[in-house]
Amino acid sequence: MDKAMKQYEVLKWASSFLKTYNREENVATLLLQHHRKMERNVFFQEMQSIIPGDIVQLYKKDIEAHALKGIPIQHLIGYAPFYGEEFAVNEHVLIPRFETEELVEYAAAYIQSIVNREELTIVDVGTGSGVIGITLKQLFPEISVCATDISSQALDVAKQNACQLGVDVQFLQGNFLMPLLQQGIKPDILISNPPYIDYNESDLLEDTVKNFDPDIALFAADKGLSAYRTILEQAATIPQSILRAMFFEIGASQGRAVCEMIQAEFPEGKVEIKKDLAGKDRIVKHVKSVK
User: Fold this and answer.
1) Is there a single domain that holds both residue 126 and residue 263?
2) Whole-angstrom Cα distance, residue 2 to residue 6?
């Protein structure tokens, strides 16, 4: 398998190997495209081309690491796609999912409706790799974006992504909103994909998730609700005349509980639950009443 082979032969071996270990076969194509450093359209025109033995050897090593150990393909190639961009990821940050793109789109639709957007300050709470805050800054260069995380390693990744994509985001280390409150920064809009998985549901997760995504980004106490409670308690100290809206990604069974927590801290305003493309509750939105 380490000798030079044609591309279609390498893909055939990899797909069969992945299938044997119940892994997604499309990983074979994605990894080989990465190793060959080819655009997708060029890659599929090269099925008869010869792949040098050294590339075959490296590719085989990655396929086996994914199939046998569950190492996510995003960790093997060093990035994950999100909203049309490539974001660096590693073991210190959550690998971004498509559902979070829906969170960004939902928040972006609200931001788009605001006339004087250059006056807005938005905070991405628990930013991880920075995908939410960075993407919103790309969509709306005129807004100010702050992003917080308790993990310095995660912030290093987020800063790398902001630098690579050429956007200006202010990164602060601390527990959810605390670093903003300490510095007197008062956001107009809050958006967050916090940890929301119940610790008791750990065994239900794929090994590619529970063994490689950081626990601090996955799990929360109180049936996965404790992060929302802390964020809302902190947000309640922001003057209500300033905080316009909040957007949270949630677990599929958490919509009612999160809405009740929001209404307890922010009795005025409208709370909505939005379903994802799979028809599951995925986003909770709160917008203050306009008088």
Assistant:
1) yes
2) 12
87 in Cβ contact with 132 (< 8 Å)? no
Residue whose token pair is 């960004």: 104
CB atoms within 10 A of CB 73: 21
Residues 147 and 42 in one domain: no
- The domain containing residue 23 runs over which residues? 5-69
Q: Is 83 contained in some domain?
A: no
Q: Are residues 159 and 23 in the same domain?
A: no
CA distance 58 to 93: 25
d(CA 122, CA 175): 17
pTM: 0.94
Distance between CA 52 and CA 61 in Å, rounded?
A: 15
User: What confidence tens digit (pLDDT) does each residue in 14-63 have?
Assistant: 999 999 999 999 999 999 999 999 998 999 999 999 999 999 999 999 99
Of 287, 102, 106, 266, nearest to 188 by C-alpha is 287
Q: Is 201 within the bounds of a domain?
A: yes
> Alpha-carbon distance 146 to 232, whole Å?
17
Around Cβ 142, how many Cβ atoms within 10 Å? 10
